[in-house]
Amino acid sequence: MSLSGKQIAEHNSRESCWVIVHGKAYDVTEFLPEHPGGSKIILKYAGKDATEEFEPIHPPDTLDKYLDKSKHLGPVDMGTVAKVEKAESPEEKERQARIARMPILEQCYNLMDFESVAKRVMKQTAWAYYSSGADDEITMRENHTAFHKIWFRPRVLIDVEKIDFSTTMLGTKVDMPFYVTATALGKLGHPEGEVVLTRAAKKHNVVQMIPTLASCSFDEIMDAAEGDQVQWLQLYVNKDREITKKIVQHAEKRGCKGLFITVDAPQLGRREKDMRTKFNDVGSNVQSGSQTDTSQGAARAISSFIDPGLSWKDIPWFRSITKMPIILKGVQRVEDVIRAVEVGVQGVVLSNHGGRQLDFARSGIEVLAEVMPVLRERGWDNRLEVFIDGGVRRATDIIKALCLGAKGVGIGRPFLYAMSAYGQPGVERAMQLLKDEMEMNMRLIGCSSIDQLNPSLVDTRALSMHAANVPTDNLGQFVYDPLVVPKEKSML
Amino acid sequence: MSLSGKQIAEHNSRESCWVIVHGKAYDVTEFLPEHPGGSKIILKYAGKDATEEFEPIHPPDTLDKYLDKSKHLGPVDMGTVAKVEKAESPEEKERQARIARMPILEQCYNLMDFESVAKRVMKQTAWAYYSSGADDEITMRENHTAFHKIWFRPRVLIDVEKIDFSTTMLGTKVDMPFYVTATALGKLGHPEGEVVLTRAAKKHNVVQMIPTLASCSFDEIMDAAEGDQVQWLQLYVNKDREITKKIVQHAEKRGCKGLFITVDAPQLGRREKDMRTKFNDVGSNVQSGSQTDTSQGAARAISSFIDPGLSWKDIPWFRSITKMPIILKGVQRVEDVIRAVEVGVQGVVLSNHGGRQLDFARSGIEVLAEVMPVLRERGWDNRLEVFIDGGVRRATDIIKALCLGAKGVGIGRPFLYAMSAYGQPGVERAMQLLKDEMEMNMRLIGCSSIDQLNPSLVDTRALSMHAANVPTDNLGQFVYDPLVVPKEKSML
Amino acid sequence: MSLSGKQIAEHNSRESCWVIVHGKAYDVTEFLPEHPGGSKIILKYAGKDATEEFEPIHPPDTLDKYLDKSKHLGPVDMGTVAKVEKAESPEEKERQARIARMPILEQCYNLMDFESVAKRVMKQTAWAYYSSGADDEITMRENHTAFHKIWFRPRVLIDVEKIDFSTTMLGTKVDMPFYVTATALGKLGHPEGEVVLTRAAKKHNVVQMIPTLASCSFDEIMDAAEGDQVQWLQLYVNKDREITKKIVQHAEKRGCKGLFITVDAPQLGRREKDMRTKFNDVGSNVQSGSQTDTSQGAARAISSFIDPGLSWKDIPWFRSITKMPIILKGVQRVEDVIRAVEVGVQGVVLSNHGGRQLDFARSGIEVLAEVMPVLRERGWDNRLEVFIDGGVRRATDIIKALCLGAKGVGIGRPFLYAMSAYGQPGVERAMQLLKDEMEMNMRLIGCSSIDQLNPSLVDTRALSMHAANVPTDNLGQFVYDPLVVPKEKSML
Amino acid sequence: MSLSGKQIAEHNSRESCWVIVHGKAYDVTEFLPEHPGGSKIILKYAGKDATEEFEPIHPPDTLDKYLDKSKHLGPVDMGTVAKVEKAESPEEKERQARIARMPILEQCYNLMDFESVAKRVMKQTAWAYYSSGADDEITMRENHTAFHKIWFRPRVLIDVEKIDFSTTMLGTKVDMPFYVTATALGKLGHPEGEVVLTRAAKKHNVVQMIPTLASCSFDEIMDAAEGDQVQWLQLYVNKDREITKKIVQHAEKRGCKGLFITVDAPQLGRREKDMRTKFNDVGSNVQSGSQTDTSQGAARAISSFIDPGLSWKDIPWFRSITKMPIILKGVQRVEDVIRAVEVGVQGVVLSNHGGRQLDFARSGIEVLAEVMPVLRERGWDNRLEVFIDGGVRRATDIIKALCLGAKGVGIGRPFLYAMSAYGQPGVERAMQLLKDEMEMNMRLIGCSSIDQLNPSLVDTRALSMHAANVPTDNLGQFVYDPLVVPKEKSML
């Protein structure tokens, strides 16, 4: 027999707190203090239906995994649950109007276009979570800008009729030298979440890296793969190593072909744009100021399990629990790449976590330019595969990374934006545009295959220039009278 | 006997497609799949008069050359052809109003002024085709900016009463050290097309390079030359070498004095600004999204014949079919200049195709500064003539290039803009302004003739600095309270 | 018996000038020519109540100290004093409206936020005094910008579960490696003045440096300290060394633990923003232009006693009058740090006085990077403690300074702004935010304690780049047609 | 007997052209073709009173000197001359309104302030003439910007109680290390012209350099000097050396103490802002386009006599005709400074003519940093005095130049702007402000006299960085969502 809305509504306090998720009731009273996102956000829905809030930030198996079966109260007769009348806010109305006017997909000609559209059509909180970076977002922007400091030295008069930019990563043959890197909370952008990316990756034969903090469950994402489609696992290491072990070995059993251990996030970042949106949240009473620490944005809410004690001495243990190649994701200096070789892992991702962790961390492409000459000097450049991610928006960015010695590049946000704005067709078009650009630019740089890319094709002299914007002389700028083009005749 | 409009109008489908061009009817049914610009654009005019669309992007001899005579259906009685009523769009009305207010020619004081006027008075599609560059247009802008990294070290107290800035290029005596470089589709800017440039070049005694993709036919442009006026041929190499041979030998016979083989365009560029204008095109139904690949802007439409397989091994063949000096246009690194000397060509143009091909290709002037010291060290600086193009807007730009060792510079877009805005008088004034600037600046740098220009007159230390705009600290900028000049008294 | 308002009002001229301060009357006729801020400002209040103007820029014991007791005329019956009707200005009304709309404290997520709020809610004159810098304020902005030229080289896979960022400065154990540096005129920002900072410093266990030019008296600030709270004394050296001696020995007796002698201000700066506000001052008649020299902003008004003759030969004398450690505040080049070691002081603050003195002085962080390698080379890095101040806004700024060898950093304006906007809770939150950032960023850089910070963790190659904004090509910028993202559909 | 207006009015054509200047009539029919500014501008006033146009750009003795006495027709009865009713243009009305609202002089706190005011209150043509530079005005702006690349390394704890910044230039003792450099057409800015500067220079005991192209006559300017006031002569060398000789020897006889021969202007610059104002000129019919060459702005109109043939071989001749020290003004590279020493002149001014001649000429301060080390290495630094001009706006600019080895700096435009806005009191205040800044900054850099200034006090590492603004990634900038400060509460 189902529970009624009225019954649930009676348990609406810290003393007895029931919530409805996907038509079922749960008693979360005892769980309140343990909730990584704080008790307040749950109490907001005490006695009510929390599905809409719950959905995008918890994989569907969350309650099964973390809430004792005794607290599963069974199905609710949803017809008896009071509907919350949500007046559509003016902001939401404007957003709906923007959605109605959205450009058609064919009007997007490059990866930036998707970001531009997504910014206009996504919910503010979702946009804030995806687009935010650490502190002043200086590293986040540097990631893309760094590519602009590298210029080409193209070859001419090379036969480039046939272009082949397929390559292999960790033994997998892929059509293009990039992979879909792991990003959290896919359902913030699209109701189906990460499986959208899985299907698009299949279409273009590139690898998808599955995030620990996915909105879909790991198995859903694996199930969405077809045929011999290859996936990797991104791992945040749990303080409880048994949980980690279970996750890793399950992934291996399901067929994952690489284990990417995140090493740049002992604590998830302070992203102020994300934090600020909390104050716009309907019904938020955080403004009282009494409990600010529990409201630090989505990133903090979902990451309290991550072990800040993870260290080099844990690596052998990982090697003991899996046969998957192990790649350290988030290495940021040559000394650590050398150490990675020494501890015997199969690869590193030079990455600063998309500019979401430490502001003023250098870009992956810059670290790459520091790392590869040292590896080559030692003859170690074949002892591990080096990937980078962060700021990749153009095929020229990819080509630059490969010229400098990367095996492939990870792309994250652009595909999230394409998915958020246009769903799977959006992601597919984003990949197709990269393909078009790749073909064109491989030709223009004078290379018909990936193995021809080499450092002599790029000029990186500016790459280490970190000069920030320098102080401006406001007085001088104000009084300066700039040249203007001729005025129109009627102005005379 | 002429065909009637009604007869033509019956053949308005993919199954039977007739079109009128310049008062004659053609059966293009079988040609549809072969059309480099795609069949869709032709079908739009099936059964109708296509002259206005056809004109600017096809030389007049196109149909004779590429459509079998059996498909030439003969003259049409144009009085019987239904006139298409084209309502003038609001954008077009605004443009006409801007044309009415155009500054008079004498108000243009430099080459930028023409660009400014042209931008306001040209049709959007024409402006997009001329002004667009590859990807983010970073190389396009770098081309001009690069000159700004070079500063002068002028000499004083040199007798500069008489200034002579004539020089020779490939044996031809010219009045100024620049030439009109090849640019496609002149009729987009002016109904008469490239011959306007021919006449202006004659007036100022400079060389014109004739483009393969001209709107006028090659012979029309040759015919427009007067007396001993010198012209060169720019060549896109056709996959069918017989066609190429015919073009080259015809040009030589007609008196062309130089063969400039384009080597930086195995495939014509993705120029997004150009691509975007397609969606504004009257009657375009590309928005359905079904056939986007056939609508990639004017550049793609006209260039499918170009051979991406062209390579160094083809050069001896060119030397075997012509006695014209051969110059490789689009060389971009010193290694390839050395190879050019070794294969025995007479010159190179250091160029990135006006920033229209590979974004992040370096500017011609920067490559020049890399090339010349190497050539001089080998004693090879007299074994070929080195030209540059891209971004030249001021006489100081020309002087900088010559100081560094260029024999001359090519100028393209500025003359197109002058022509589009003011016709032949515009081009002539543009050249005259360069002449005025040359005279002034030769004096101010302390040189009375071209042979006195040398590297000691320039400071190029900044030329290799590629630092892109660096990340800005938005918070800091927002809160900073800038100094202001004193408020006016009434404000107190 | 009290004096009446009428009696006072009769003495309203240069010949006989009485003023009321805090309910007591004073005869300042003879003092007029000696007033450091000029006689004009006193005459404005001749015969009237000057308390509101007097309060923020004079410590309460000023009149006792500097005006002979015979001029203390005794209490005034304030009921008999004519109230000055001050019409609220439109600017003040707008300011009050802004105060009413102020964000709540919890909406401030970083130190910049306080500055942003303070700018909107502070009185114009107070804001101008706090926020102004020398000349074009180029050094002031450089102070913060300089940190942006330093990038991190973080370590990964270090156990950072427990983070300890406590350290010691001049023997005092502190919770965080910063101190509240000395800033003048605290009551401009908050009615209680510097004691607000004292209390907040106690809460977070950091040191406060007491300014010579405080609004509160020295003893008030000492009295506000609790328990073993540590304070230092910032000293402007008086031309009359006896006064200086008295101040120093009094401070030592009261328990001050460090003597910071300001050496970068032989004369206080010209701060034009501060100077300009004088013209907005209610009742100011400086506009007559007759006496401009006496109206050079608050800085000049309060600093005429400072001795521009202070020199290295004075240092032994200071060592003879106190046992407190002596630190030179405002050292700006390595040669002077070496000399500081040689004369035997205990520390230096590399500082340019918050950009308020010499424009184009380099930032403390840049001088630090110049100083430490030289000290290390001589093995002198432990012979004195090196501090820096200026531009610190983020925990990453602090960490960068410590990586380069600083013992701690001083923070001034940000706490003033937090205090001005939100009082003591504001200052406490500002410190808490730094604490949150410190914890996060220590983890992300891979260090669990202060002593692990070292130069290999930062990339300072850009630090000495002083390139100013370079000339812009206005014509080129004007005519350039930038790429745009796709227009919305309704725009077609 | 006086001529009547009617009589004059009859001679209003190219065939017979009379004009009135200062109440006297002149027959200029034969002079028309010789007028350096073209005949058109005279014909505009044929038969009329030309005084207002004539006045600012011709010294009063012009007609006596250049027009044969036989053409002097004698006094005119001005009451009979038809008054020209000039309707006040809307622009002029706005300008008058801006003048009425002008800030009072005491509100100007630095040299930029005068420029800001002048821009608002000067006539457009006068502003254009004073403020314009060559081509894109890049050198003009670089002149000031270059100082921003130099930072200080100040000394502390130096006794700076007494500051003495007097020095000597060419043997003359001056109160401050700058001089008023020569600038043309003073009456465009102020009805009295250059004598205003003479009187202000006297007041502050600095040297004035008298321009060849003054609005006042040379003797008027000499006569305005008082006591032992020192003046120098700036010389444009006439094609007719006899005229030059007469000018030089007359100047020496009148007491000039230095001969500054301009060597950077064989032809006066193309200043487009100046040229453009011609089209706004009341009554200008240049728009017909028929005679554009005669309308190239004020600079061209007044300079046709200058000899572009002037060269090093002329220097001995100058030494033979005068005992005044000879200084070459406008030297721009170290090679030419060496040659200057070798030909035995007494000094050089490193200058690019205020950015009015060759665009991309380097700044004087940069050339200084190139020159002095070479001179010192040869032990030649005392064999001539080195001055610079261009871009000096702050005392810190002056101090930087002196640290690097300049004997003094020339200041031009700032005094013109001060004069144009506020007359002599403006110029005096401008000089006083520099004095205030000098005193302050000498103290802050730790120097009590000019001879203590030396290269160790400045950091010039950035001085040779010429990187221009680099291409911007427009797409990236457009889509980037910047951090914002917290929204105000009412916005929630």
UniProtKB/TrEMBL annotation, chains A, B, C, D:
Domain FMN hydroxy acid dehydrogenase intervals: 103-463
Top class in the EC scheme: oxidoreductase
Highest taxon, organism lineage: Eukaryota
Pfam families, per database record: Cyt-b5 (PF00173), FMN_dh (PF01070)
Gene Ontology CC: one annotated term: mitochondrial intermembrane space
Obligatory cofactor(s): heme b; FMN
One Gene Ontology molecular-function label: metal ion binding
SMART domains cross-referenced by the UniProt entry: Cyt-b5 (SM01117)
Domain Cytochrome b5 heme-binding: 1-77
A single GO BP: lactate metabolic process
Location within or outside the cell: Mitochondrion intermembrane space
Record-linked CDD domains: FCB2_FMN (cd02922)
UniProt keyword list: Flavoprotein, FMN, Heme, Iron, Metal-binding, Mitochondrion, Oxidoreductase
Catalytic activity: (S)-lactate + 2 Fe(III)-[cytochrome c] = 2 Fe(II)-[cytochrome c] + pyruvate + 2 H(+)
Enzyme Commission number: 1.1.2.3
UniProt-listed InterPro entries: Aldolase_TIM, Cyt_B5-like_heme/steroid-bd, Cyt_B5-like_heme/steroid_sf, Cyt_B5_heme-BS, FMN-dep_DH, FMN_HAD, FMN_hydac_DH_AS, L-MDH/L-LDH_FMN-bd
Assembly with partners or alone: Homotetramer.
Alphabetized PANTHER family for the sequence: L-LACTATE DEHYDROGENASE (CYTOCHROME) (PTHR10578:SF148), S -2-HYDROXY-ACID OXIDASE-RELATED (PTHR10578)
Protein name: L-lactate dehydrogenase (cytochrome)
